[in-house]
Specification:
Number of strands: 10
CATH architecture: Alpha-Beta Barrel
Radius of gyration: 18 Å
Strand order of the largest sheet: 8-7-6-5-4-3-10-9
Helix content: 40-55%
Distance between the termini: 35 Å
CATH class: Alpha Beta
Number of domains: 1
Number of helices: 10
Largest sheet: 8 strands, parallel
Strand content: 15-25%
Shape: globular
CATH superfamily: Dihydropteroate synthase-like
């Protein structure tokens, strides 16, 4: 499975790949403030590429629970210089993590070729902007907004609700002129979800995968892992690696993570097991 990108490039998803996270923000839940200037952000991105990340996801607005929104101007100020500098120094695939149409346009002009939108192109002008720049798009499910999503999330049937939402957003994109073969989907672990919802989504991830578009998952260092292990944010690498392996076994094609090297190892093991499970059984 290959995704066409601007400039004649392709993202090969015949096997699961890893997306490294670089947050150019002062307040992201895990690495806020660590990479909030261009040199530090580039150093981190290049380190992730060297470790094997196929995609670098750059974000300039925190979407942690309760995070305050920033203006489009401030978001552009944070991310555009990083994208431009990374594009000069690496041929890696760059993703822009944004909800804003203006940022989508400028980021793609600067060198991004994937739009990773937690709001699934529902913001004003976002559908038109994504169609215009011809980038690939990841559509994520979120109940509420970053400011409200964890106040009282509830579902009668979380997997059905997420599947219905993603199916509707795929249709909206196609109607707006974005071909379905440029779309990725993300069930949105931790975005308006209780622990029980996150676990059900992971256990039943094949039902998301069955929508037919490559599925991206992001559980790295998230609260669900802390609830299960009792570990603080910086101590959740092992839990995130385990979650990445499970997601890969269940058909995820992109794993988004802060911890690239160990996640790549986990994905390799999961892919080997998945391949072994598909071979005919030996008979004596």
């Amino acid at each position: 499975m290959k995704i066409d990108l601007p400039g004649g490039r392709q993202l090969d998803l015949s096997e699961t790949v890893v997306m490294g996270v670089v947050n150019v923000t002062p307040d992201s839940f895990s690495d806020g403030g660590r990479h909030d200037d261009v040199p530090r952000a580039i150093d981190q991105a290049l380190k992730m590429v060297e470790q094997g990340a196929a995609i670098i996801d750059i974000g300039g607005e925190s979407t942690r629970p309760g995070a305050e929104p920033v203006t489009a101007g401030e978001e552009r100020r944070r991310v555009i210089p990083v994208i431009e500098a990374l594009r000069r120094q690496s041929d890696c695939i760059i993703s822009i993590d944004t909800m804003k149409a203006e940022v989508m346009r400028e980021a793609c002009l600067a060198g991004a070729s994937i739009i990773n939108d937690v709001n699934a192109l529902r913001s004003e002008g976002a559908l038109a902007a994504a169609a215009e720049v011809r980038a690939a798009v990841c559509l994520m499910h979120m109940q509420g907004s970053p400011q409200t999503m964890q106040l009282a999330p509830s579902y009668s049937a979380v997997v059905d609700d997420v599947v219905d939402f993603l199916r509707e957003r795929i249709a909206a994109c196609v109607s707006a002129g974005i071909p379905s073969d440029r779309l990725l989907i993300d069930p949105g672990f931790g975005f308006g979800k209780r622990l029980v919802d996150n676990l059900e989504l992971l256990a039943r991830l094949p039902e998301i995968v069955a929508l037919g578009r490559p599925t991206l998952v992001g559980m790295s260092r998230k609260g669900m892992l802390g609830q299960l292990t009792g570990r603080d944010i910086d101590e959740r690498c092992a839990a995130g690696v385990a979650a990445a392996a499970i997601a890969t076994l269940h058909g995820a094609r992109i794993v988004r993570t802060h911890d690239v090297a160990p996640t790549i190892d986990a994905v390799k093991i999961a892919l080997a097991v998945r391949a072994a499970s598909q071979r005919p059984a030996c008979t004596s």
